Prior knowledge:
The complex is a heterodimer.
Chain A: H1 7-12, H2 18-29, H3 34-38, H4 48-98, H5 105-121, E1 123-126, E2 134-137, H6 143-169, H7 176-251, E3 255-259, E4 265-268, H8 272-276, H9 280-283, H10 294-308, E5 314-322, E6 328-337, E7 347-353, H11 355-392, H12 396-423, E8 435-436, H13 437-446, E9 454-456, E10 462-464, H14 469-485, E11 493-500, E12 503-509, H15 517-528, H16 541-553, E13 556-561, E14 567-573, E15 578-580, H17 610-614, H18 631-640
Parallel strand pairs in A: 9-11
Antiparallel strand pairs in A: 1-2, 3-4, 3-7, 5-6, 6-7, 8-10, 10-15, 11-12, 12-14, 13-14
Helix pairs in contact in A: 4-5, 4-6, 4-7, 5-6, 6-7, 11-12, 13-14, 14-16, 15-16
Chain B: H1 13-17, E1 40-43, H2 48-51, H3 56-64, E2 69-70, H4 71-77, H5 82-95, E3 98-101, H6 103-110, H7 115-128
Antiparallel strand pairs in B: 1-2, 1-3
Helix pairs in contact in B: 4-5
Amino acid sequence: MPRSPSAEVGATSATQRPAAGGRSGIGRLVPRLPILGDLRLDRRFGWVIPVFIVLVAAIVGYNARATSQERGSALVVNIAARQRALVERHTKDVLLVVDGFQADPEGSGTALHQEANALLDGGTVIAPQGNDSFVKIPAARDWKIRRKLEQNRRLIDELTSTGDRLLKGGRRDPQYTAKVTRLRVLTAQLSSVSNDAVGEITKHTEASLSRLVRIEIALGLLGALAALAMGLLLRRAGAEQAAQFRSLVNNSSDLITVLAPDGTIAYQSPSVERMLGRRSDDLVGTALTDLVHPDDQHQVTVSLTKLVEAPGATANFACRLQHEDGSWRHVESICTNLADDPRVHGLVLNIRDVTEQAALRQSIGDLLHNLARRSQGLVDRQLELIDELERDEVDPDRLDELFRMDHLATRMRRNVENLIVLSGVEQRRRWSESVPLRDVVEAAVAEVEEYSRVQVGGIHDLTLSGQAASDVAHLVAELVENATSFSSPTTRVEVSGGPAGNGYVLEIEDHGIGMSDAELAEANNRLAAPLAADIAVSRMMGFHVVGRLAARHGIRVQLRHCWFGGVAALVLLPPALLGSAGERPAMAPPVPAGVMASPEPLLLAETTESGWQQRAHLPPPRHAAPAPSRGGDTDAAAEAGDPVE
Amino acid sequence: MSGGGTDEGGRSWSRHYRRPYTVTGGRTRPAHDDLELETLVQTVTGIDEQLAGLGREQRSIAALCREVVSIAEISARLELLLGVTRVIVGDMALQGVVLLHRPQAAVADADIPPVELLERVLHGLKNIS
Lengths: 645, 129
């Protein structure tokens, strides 16, 4: 079924004939039929279908009509043959009655008249099968047949009238012999005429039969030709479409790859030659992961494995693929699981070469990094200068001003170091020794604008690897900043911690209005999968920084609702980053420390993680223990005599 | 205060990340008026239970001041800014955790220090330089 390229336009066209309106109506239905929808005939061949339908209808109609006619002809032949017998019987009956025997010449005469009339003009006669049923025969139409039948009827009239006269006159009639002779002659004549008529009818039937056969052969041929033509047209339309599709696939700069469920390449578009310098035929049957950079293989495998389990789903990933010459091309891929589609039965990957974008991104990242590094140096020196000034300052007002400067510079340093993180360059401040976790949290708080609203409490005596200390401080700072900016300035933000299963959890809680489920989900997604460096995301810089830093150190960050409103950010620090400050540090009592002189009891989230519950069994805070016994203060005491300070 | 060692530029963690304004929540004015450099501080005995509720610096000061120590010495030994130390000690004095002794009063009683003492100090200073 053809489908005009735009059925709607066709239907609304003013010059459209009414008959065409119906076709466009069908056209609207066509897209629902998948196969026909795929093979659209060109618009100019739209007339083929109606012609084909008319042709088939004509063949069927003519056949039916011709067959019914020929059935009538056979009947007529039968009845004409019976007529000859009736004529013989009538003659015999007349002679028998004249000779004084019992017979019924009148009955046979009436039957003769009836049949003669019926043969000529059509009518109902007793069926030739002789089972007392009646059949209807059509009037004779051919003029030759009619002439013979008229002659036949005239002779029958004469025969019956001669018979009647013979019956009236009897044997004593002087013309008896002549009349009998006449009767016999008429009988013979009738037989001959009737034979002629039957012959004519048979001849005519044969002629029309052979004509019918010829016409049917012609019509059959025509139908076959029409079917052939339509097949060719459809094939051509299909071929054109296939060529169009092939050309799209071949000339597209993107790769189209179909992966079998086991990860091998089932189809590879030829454009791979342009992108990776490889022939598509060589790739079919090999595993896609063979081409992927070793560093990206895990991530690609994870994405594909996840996708295989979800028919109909779509996933994205970015990775590097190896060019034939050994270089790596950065690509982005959108893949769709079409395992349920019997025509595909696999994963369809659309792979785009983004090497140039990657290079551009790299150079922007480098630029960002260089600028940020310079600023970082300047801010560090500024902070050192402020330190010097603060040390000797005793005037409260001047110290207050210095504190403001100090705070601003600290926040500036955080911003600058965030830029370094976003630049994507793997270079960061590392410390030669591990740092107490509490100090890291306090450093984070110091970097936040509204630090005075933040209450730190219940951080255990743990240390954090010097490699990660600065990053964790920035990560926590971003979460605390987020908490303070999305809660009322009169409320507090609480930072606490507790051992959790396989690590340590820092919890940052605010008492703000909270986030909707959708916002929370989006924020968590962003945290879980930070995009590649994208300067445009600076609006959401905080979450990106957190996501990046978390990914760098295997830290898990999750936002969740608090039962009392607001949002809690949970930061799970993996054991690899943690060290012990004392003999049994993980279980050491949380020591309240920080900004507020008298912290309020902590409201922990309603979490039921085992780690949190363990808090209940922790030994009570070591009130009696003299403070210098704690690692931090011992150092402080030791450093007291340090000439540097 | 502790830990961290140094970074690539040789800075210590505490110099770098421990900002003094966080210790007092940004306050610079002591809650107590009579806090001079030489004011002596002593922790009230038998209040260990109360220490648990205090911040880290407060506890350090309380531990240090089991013996009488001057504010200047607290500042130096705990690596706290003088201004910050004064604020914290002022808070602690108000809470009754520490007692303040004012050496000025002693000086006033004695009128002037003995000449012998001053000479010994001078002698000592000469020996240092």
